[in-house]
Amino acid sequence: MLKRKVVILGATGSVGQAALSVIGKHPHQFELLGVAANRNGTELDALAHRFNVPHTALFSKEGLDGLMRLATLPEADLILVATTGTIGVQPTIAALESGKSVGLANKETLVLAGPFVMETARQSRGTLLPVDSEHNAIFQCLQGVGPMSRVRRIILTASGGPFLHLRPEDLASVTPEQALQHPNWSMGPKITIDSATMANKGLEMIEARWLFDLQADAISVVIHPQSLIHSMVECVDGSLLAQIAPPSMEFPVQHVLSYPDRLPSPLPPLDLTLLHHLDLQPPDLDRFPCLRLASEALAVGGMAPAVFNAANSLGVEAFLERRLAFTGIPRLIDACLSSASFSMPASIRDLLELEHDLNGFARSQLKAFRI
């Protein structure tokens, strides 16, 4: 394997930190060419010094110049898009158009702009590789399946988060501190709350629709509290393929950074003899209405997934700021989905302008609804 030149967009976040750990463990395999962070200049400078990185950039939603510059660096081989929110759309498309391999760890990019991103990947010399543990698991399983005509469905696993066994009627009183205590994964606050509501699994269903060119009825979700089976593929002949690994983002990140090669494990391997059982159960949609709402948005199509995402993002923000109850997040999503128009714009520019309008629409719903 030739030394791969890597750029990390969102280097100070949880996925970016996992990538830095992998690169640090394999210094002869990877060269860190560029890093970007959202306003965290002090930490960015520190890691740039630590890894001797020649290209750095700070970015915000109002200023993407540095992000776009790093996404299209001529000498880069792989761009890891580990930003949060829809800010990842434009650099992902730009990197693909530049012929890069793109490791996508940003759900919202495909939720908002799935058809545009996948069409760019098809028309360009670029390659899109999924980093989320669930989609990376599906991607790995599919290597042993062949054409998608052999696939009956994919099954995304979900831990169930910290409230798996809490009564639905008790969810209204949970606090941000409780919701941020994920039992298995160490993640940023937004995705941790999304895990607690299972909105993240809904976003992953939408993302999977575009990544693997599947219809909604070919995408299922099961609860798997141990977070060891990261997802499964069911073939038309009834065979079931599963990808199993410890719950650490270093595994899928390393797979993408080294693909199509494989490197020694970044962490101790899983000892299956120590496992007494692996639980699998259907999700309770009364406890997790965000999952039902995401399924409905996926079935409607058009801009419905983007409406779901905008409303959910605002709901999580309001919950973390104690302006909204935990159960207010799905109620806000439902209100927005019940009131929005879902026609898809014809261009990526129009889509991004509409996404700005969607955020304003969600804020107006939150203010009017007074959840």
What can you see in these coordinates?
The protein is of the alpha/beta class and 371 residues long. The protein contains 14 helices and ten strands. It has helices at 14-25, 41-51, 65-71, 89-97, 107-123, 133-142, 176-179, 189-197, 199-211, 250-258, 289-300, 304-320, 328-339, 348-369; strands at residues 4-9, 30-37, 55-58, 78-81, 101-104, 127-130, 151-158, 219-223, 229-235, 240-244. The longest helix is centred in the C-terminal third of the chain and has 22 residues, at 348-369. The mean pLDDT is 93.
Query: How much β-strand is present in the residues?
Result: 5-15%
End-to-end separation: 54 Å
List the helices and strands in order: EHEHEHEHEHEHEHHHEEEHHHHH
Helix % is: 40-55%
Structural class of the secondary structure composition? alpha/beta
The shape, in one word, is: globular
SS field, number of helical segments: 14
Query: Strand sequence of the main sheet, in spatial order?
Result: 3-2-1-4-5-6
Mean pLDDT over all positions: 93
The profile of the biggest β sheet is:
6 strands, parallel
If you compute it from the alpha carbons, what radius of gyration comes out, rounded to the nearest whole angstrom?
A: 20 Å
Spans of 5+ residues with little confidence (pLDDT < 50)? none
> What's the number of extended β-strand segments?
10
